[in-house]
Amino acid sequence: MSYQIPKFRHPELPVNDLGYTKADYEGSISTLCAGCGHDSISGAIVKACHELSIPPHMIAKMSGIGCSSKSPTYFLGKSHGFNSVHGRMPSVVTGAAMANRDLIYLGVSGDGDTASIGMGQFAHVARRNLNMVYIVMNNGCYGLTKGQDSATADEGSVSKKGDANVFSAIDLCSTALQMGATFVARSFSGDKDQLVPLIKAAISHRGFALIDVVSPCVTFNNNAGSTKSYEFVREHAEATGTVDFVPMQKEITTDYEPGSSHEVTLHDGSSIHLYKMSENLDPFDRTSALMNMENHRTAGDILTGLIYMDKDSRDLHDVLETSRRPLNTLDTEDLCPGNQMLKNINASLR
Amino acid sequence: MKRIESVNDFVIKFANVNGTGSASANNMFAKALFRMGLPVCPKNIFPSNIQGLPTWYEVRVSEKGYLGRRGGVDIALSVNPQSMAQDIKEVEEGGYFIYDDTKPLDLRLMRNDVNIIGIPLTRICNEEYTDPRQRQLFKNVIYVGALAALLDMDFKVLTDLVKDQFKGKEKLILPNIHALELGHQYVKANLECPIGIRVKTSDQVGDKILLDGNTALGLGAIYGGATVAAWYPITPSTSVVDAYEKYVRRVRIDPGTGEKNYAIVQAEDELSAIGMVIGASWNGARAFTATSGPGISLMSEFLGLAYFAEIPTVLIDVQRAGPSTGMPTRTQQSDVLSAAYASHGDTKQVLLFPATPKECFDFGAMSFDLAERLQTPIIIMTDLDLGMNDNMSEPLEWDDNRAYDRGKVMTAEQLEEGVEFGRYLDVDGDAICYRTYPGAHPKRGAFFTRGTSRDEYAVYTERGEEYEKNMLRLMRKWDTIKEYVPEPEVVTAAEKTDVAVLYYGTSEESSRESLDFLAEEGVHLDAMRVRAFPFNDDVKAFIENHKQVFVIEQNRDAQLRTLLMAEFEFGPDKLKSVLCFDGTPISARNISKQIKQHLNGGEVQPLHRTKIAGQAGE
Prior knowledge:
The complex is a heterodimer of chains A (350) and B (618). With 350 residues, chain A is of the alpha/beta class. Chain A is 31% helix and 17% strand. In chain A, helix 2 (67-70) links the parallel strand 1 (59-63) and strand 2 (80-83). Chain B has a seven-stranded mixed sheet with strand order 11-10-12-13-15-14-21, with helices on both faces. Chain B has a six-stranded mixed sheet with strand order 3-4-2-5-6-7. Chain B has a five-stranded mixed sheet with strand order 18-20-19-22-23, with helices on both faces. The radius of gyration of chain B is 27 Å and the shape is globular. With 618 residues, chain B is of the alpha/beta class. In chain B, helix 1 crosses helix 5 (155-165) and helix 5 (155-165) runs antiparallel to helix 6 (173-190). At the A-B interface, strand 2, helix 3, helix 5, helix 10 and helix 11 of A face strand 9, helix 7, strand 11, helix 9 and helix 10 of B. Strand 2 (80-83) of chain A pairs parallel with strand 17 (448-450) of chain B.
């Protein structure tokens, strides 16, 4: 591996209540493209967990397959991780959470992973209100297979091939709300000031917490006409014999006030309009949350912030009335009913 | 006219309409014989619908204790006009055809070599009951009462059974006994009875029980310590989780708090069900799912992950007739290959083949020990015949001194002591590595579980030598597994022979009956029942030590034979197939016929594909 994380840390890095520095929450160095929004989200996760003073080993980081799903390697190196199969992270988390309710389950997924192959599991984990944080790193395209449209790509948006998407987009926040999710938020990868508190709130929420994070793809969210496009770079790179050159890009960041709208320019020169939820909006009403999102979508904005939260949420363990003691701590003496019960059963079968 | 005469040895087949409540009446008949001390083998042959189509219930009674299907029908009790033509055709020469003669029998169906017995079931019901539902339900009970007279059964056994069956619903006891008496009295007064076939109280049952394999597996999961069940309903496996739920509620709910020491999640599909099992097992709970062939197809991707990432997983496959949706309510052993090599890439899965309810219970409980010890999926391969039919079985037993084998899990203390931890390090030389549960230790023991290639410390790598090292270790682990799975059972023939049979699962009972029959004719065959895949060296030696081995199985493509050839590289000439794949359980007559055809030489073929199985229904 040519990349290595430097061991040196500033001796006066701030420590949290557990005495851990932020470095204790970091993972391996990222192998995503330089400037990828996903890395910013990883950074926000690190910051949120550090600030909340969560023991890193009490977090289970779970994912499916794809660029986003690779990211758990890049944060929380002292936590157990699980990189499952494409789109099927929610079921693995459901089982894991059933086995041990004492851990914090942090699922990371992408728009391909969640909105296509994993749409079924996403819908059902939301409706079961599993106690987990579900972060979607949403860039509207498939990075690992070189830029096909995903199901969250907007109708009319142009892929790297130059074709305009002819299908309507799936809005994950609306879907989650309709499926019964009890915490729904949207943010932008470059807006740490907004994203970090949202992650903290999601971790504290008891039940299913979705954060859909718009996270631009530096390599594939471009168009054929752009001089910064992949096509353009590749054409020029081929002259030097390099066939798989990914341009280094800067991370896009932004900072704006609640209740205001802000235009963010992406790597390809296109732009998106973010609207940060006003503090006056009521995030405790599911119907108005849906309406707010729809109103902003119609206006061409992406509504960001905490869109909905059910303060009285009952998670899956509450509904199933599972024991307080984690099921994975039970052993023979707790679980085995003994031979006498079998004798009684045998007697009833004659 | 010839009349079949026998005591405690016959096959009776009930032909009913699905959804009319006949199953419980037929079951009452079988259970009464069982209580009279007679070995019985009831088999439900039902359609994949809820109401209206023909359904059959076949009961084999055998003083000698043969519990498989024999083949042929001695008594047909037909109350379904839709299937009457077929039902009367199936009766053996000299056998008995009992029908509802409220309407006269269609003369075109008449057979002169069969004893025809008419009982006006509908007329009796119409005279006795005004409510249409009662007319329908009690018609079935009336024919059980009639049979009691025709077969000279102990009537008190039936009335006692009714009393036991409706304990808690006392209002139903007298009406049911009355219906039994209606049938009984009509026959006594109007027909010659008993007929040539009769039953006599016996003592061949001992302490045995009558239980279906799915319930036994549900109980096995409880005794094996399963705390998480994730499943998606599919025939014929649904009743496994139903049984688990029924019994686990009795023993694992804290009476004070109402808290449950278990979690059952009905998943949205089979992909999700197996994903939940893998997640729970990864996190240190014992978890299982139950499914059938179509579910195995859907679960395959996840099974590959569990194999490669080495996550304990318990999966119960109650097989039915495929391919595709096939015949959902008919039995087969046709998932053997898809389960053995489930998922893409070089994958091998551990299979267990129980043959009785007792073994379903034992293997069910044991599978959790195996899964955790071996850190790999364990697939219990049963089938509809064993799973959904009552089978006579040894009683269930548990050794109260037995503790679960939780396998190689590194504790917080061991990690604290600084023992080197690498998730895929072969420390003990048995190719099974240590794992840690998430949250075990603040600083040590965390690792990344993934389906991608990794090194011994679970770090992602695409280096060829690391990948090969891992895959070769998994092959060595396969050898270790052979020491842990149930060994095969051998029955040596009375006379020395170089020909043998090999069978597994529900083919056992019919196979053994067939071997007894062939021995009487001077054909002696050694027998082996394979109980697990990977096959151990005994299986190899057994085949090597015989010139020819018949592999008896219930599928078209001789799947176990293929597996034996693939694993041991036997040539096709060594192994001959005896097959049945019409969706009904293989019968002893069918097996005998096929073996005799092979042994006569004329039809021996080098490849099983050119050999046709016994005719449907045999």
